[in-house]
Amino acid sequence: MRATRLLLPVVSVLFLAGCAVTAPELDRSELAEDISVQGIDLPESEMPRPSGELTLEEAIHQALWRNPRMQQAYAKLDLTAADVVEAAQFSNPTLSLSVMRPEGGGGNEVGVGLAWGISGLLMRSARQDIAESHWESTRLQLAEGMVALASDTERAWYDAVAARQRAQVQALETRAADLGSLLGERFYDAGNIPDLKRAQLRIRAAEARLKLEDARQRERETRLRLAHLMGLPGQVDGWEIPGKLPLPLAGVDDRDALVAQALEQRLDLRALDHALEGLTEGVALVRRYRWLGDIEPGIEFERETDGTRLWGGGISFTLPIFNQNQAGIARAEARLEDGEARRARLEQAVTADVHQHFVRLAHHRDKFGTKRYELLPAREIELERVQERVNFMFDDVFDLLVTKQEELADWQRAVAALGEYWRARVDLAFTVAGELPGGVPGDEGYLETDALEHDPSAMDHGDHGGHGDHGDHGDHGDHGDHGDHGDHGDHGDHGDHGDHGDHGDHGDHGDHDHGDHSDHGDDGHGGHH
Predict the structure, then answer these.
(1) pLDDT averaged over every residue in the chain
(2) 191, 225, 425, 448: which has the highest count of C-beta atoms within 10 A?
(3) Segment (H or E) for 312
(4) CA nearest 357: which of 529, 165, 159, 151?
């Protein structure tokens, strides 16, 4: 009975201690605060499927609510919470039972023992601190994943708007080319142009139609990409994208301030800092208990064959003669060194990205400004003067149509440059982990292309056919599409942050080559607004 009275308190304490451990819970308000620095709001409730015109904010909310990347990140956080619970729990005691039967007969000898390893108890607090640092690091990874997904969605939304506006302008260019081909057939039937001119007009019309199909395909692909990020793969019906890109905002000038902001606010850097705290504590733990093996105190109860009852206690432990946990110490120190190196590499990569995206933003802003405020006004004057020459019969209508097509081709390039500007601005905002100065999209207005459309009948100067062939103006060059600027890198998951237990690799930002910006000199933004 005395042994039983001793066992019950011990077992009760162990049971209550094990039941008292609870998993850490995600504080939604803290998560919202982490991502709010980049102007991102968490959706408060389930998002209905998009309908009508899809705004940028709605697209981001759809992605945060539906994209499986977020579900995976939440599941990873739950796994880390389980590690916290495990680190706080005591190891289970060991119960041993024995029955010995004498050879000559008589009563059996019965033995009962209870042992419990206390090494885990001594290291419990340190292990719990390490697990909690790991959990906080994973929570910051979750927030960083939300910011990365929002950035990917924002980039895809601007790509879709740019693709739609380019397709609209290309449709006007194709319309002008088709009109030229139609007039060419009429002039050819009247004997006013030769076969060569007729063939050239037909070639130009066919090439314009091919470019229009490419533009529409690009529009379809960008919509599919955006739908995929919103967690609605293939579902592109029922919602529309705006048809106008906003004009550039005020220039971003203080590059050093952006670098400082990025190094202070980047969530992946903060996550690595918490991971390093856990690794540092791990090194201290293995050094502190390097001589400590497995220690198991216990109590025993025996009943002899003659009915005598014996009870007592004992302890067993490992003698650190051959192994003083040298390998464990070396492993913990190597992990800490690896974590510190990854932290330094990520800091350098972030700094390099800020400089690179800053230069890209300035480049595309200046490029669009040159097109919008210099090239396009000159094209407009050229079109007006050619129209006057056609009216006075110095040039024929085909010269006017070619000039119009070249103007529309330059408008397409202006739309493409503006789209690249917004891509660069999204990339820079993500890199510095905060909203950029200059206002919000739309403050400076939008790039209007509706006024480019003219009534084709106004260009039908069929009665001027008597002027004959004013010479072969040749092929004025395919000014069409300067190539798809492509995807400046799918940020995807913005780096594999790995397991912050070995706390993984926060991803090598690599060298995102966005072209040669060496001609920017002092990276000024020029005089364009």
Answers:
(1) 81
(2) 425
(3) strand 309-317
(4) 151
**Contact indicator for 369, 258 with CB cutoff of 8 Å:** no
Phi, psi of 195, deg, nearest 5 = -60, -40
How far apart, in whole angstroms, are the C-alpha atoms of residue 142 and residue 71?
A: 10
Position 300 scores a pLDDT of 75
Please give the residue that has the higher pLDDT: either 465 or 437.
437
The whole-angstrom distance between residue 153's C-alpha and the CA centroid of its chain comes to 8
Give the predicted TM-score (pTM) of the model.
0.76
Tokens at residue 281, please? Answer: 């504590």
User: Out of 161-175, 219-233, 418-432, 499-513, which region has the weakest mean confidence (pLDDT)?
Assistant: 499-513
Backbone angles phi, psi at 114, to 5 degrees: -135, 125
Per the rule left: phi > 0, alpha: psi between -120 and 50, beta: everything else, 492 is left
| pLDDT range class, residue 289, cuts 50, 70, 90 | confident
Q: What is the pLDDT of residue 89?
A: 84
Picking from 413, 405, 502, 515, the residue whose alpha carbon sits closest to that of residue 137 is 502
Handedness of CA 128, 131, 136, 142 (dihedral sign): negative
Answer yes or no: are the C-beta atoms of 256 and 523 closer than 8 Å.
no
Look at strands 239-240 and 52-53 and give their pairing. parallel
pLDDT tens profile 77-108: 999 889 888 888 888 888 888 877 777 666 67
Per DSSP, the three-state class of 513 is: coil
* DSSP reduced 3-state for 296: strand
Distance CA(152)–CA(528), nearest Å, equals 28
Q: What separation in angstroms does the CA of 216 have from each of 148, 243, 488?
A: 28, 13, 20
Tokens standing for residue 337: 């060194």
**What distance in Å separates the CA atoms of residue 430 and residue 261, rounded to the nearest whole number?**
11
Q: Tell me the CA end-to-end span of the chain in Å, nearest whole number.
A: 91
Distances in Å between the Cα of 13 and the Cα atoms of 112, 154, 461 are 20, 55, 100
pLDDT at site 223: 97
